[in-house]
Amino acid sequence: MDLIVNIITALSGLYMITYFIDNIFETPKNLKTLKLNKQKHSDVYKIIDDFSATNIPLDTNLDNIEQILQNLSYPDELKEIIRTFKNYIEPVNFETCINRLGSLKINYVSLLHDIKKYSQNFYENDGAYIPKDNTIDIYKIFDKNSVLSHEFLHMASTGKKQTSGFCTLLDNIWIGNGLDEGYTELLNQRIFKVKKLSYTYNIEIIKILELFFDNPKDMEYAYFHNNIFIVYQTFLKYGTKEEFLSLLQTLDNLIETDIPIYKKVTAIKAKINLYNIIKRSYNKDKISKAKQILETDSLIKLIKNKKIVLANKQKHKKKVKKN
User: Fold this and answer.
1) Buried b or exposed e, range 37-52, using 16+ CB within 10 angstroms
2) Does residue 229 contact residue 52 with C-beta atoms inside 8 Å?
3) Where exactly are the structural domains of the chain?
4) What is the pTM of this model?
5) Which residues contact 105 (CB under 8 A, 6 or more apart)?
6) Pairing relation of β-strands 127-130 and 173-175?
7) pLDDT below 50 — which residues of the chain?
8) Which residues lie below 8 Å from residue 51, measured CB to CB, with a gap of 6+?
């Protein structure tokens, strides 16, 4: 694993060249975004513990979900989504969905419908959930089912403070957006079996983060109770505050920049960092699962295979010399 880390670290220098090219020809906002994210998470360091101590979710077990749903009026295109969601989710995680479902509206935004809104969002967003209006806007009509189920999950995890899932506002500082989008799409895959995934780099990182929980359902509980602090406290079993905020910063960077080599290298380094942190648990099962996730990465697999080939060649040379 040390060899892999060294090679990845060397590769990480390549994305600086890409920055300059990208800065001139494509999206100059990337460098500024990364700088702002770094400053933002530095500011959060001073206040996250205070918020963590006071944000304790209240449980409401709904034992009559079926009856409640029958009495609610909601868009027809959500019926299959609701049925699948109800069969998967724990009742304790259903309250937010119930509270918002009855007034939820879905807008299919097309070029004819709203030229300005469509042109502003089509190339950057497949869809969006707007908490203050309790509406879902869909821009990619040709792939509307996977987009709709993703945005539905944002709705189902939006708390009273109008923030969704792990996206959280601390003293006017937004944190957790990259974690929220990645985990939302991971659940979108698990619950609704969508095939075309977005936020793939974030998902692979979050799969390792999920191993910090003894039961993955506890991370779902945190998500549907709009409580990133449960994730933070769980992370502290093996990691530090600095490492957690660095992870959040990385996940934000991955969804807010458009440089392919930067995203690839950054994601691999983040997974290796999490793997090294979870090794502190001395839990063989967690460590083994984290390693399996790491080795699904094509670049890590390639480097590992090359390392094995080189080792075998060295053994062969030694045998030849002895003979």
Assistant:
1) beebbeebeeebeebb
2) yes
3) 64-305
4) 0.83
5) 75, 133, 134, 135, 136
6) unpaired
7) 12-28, 122-123, 308-311, 316
8) 170, 229
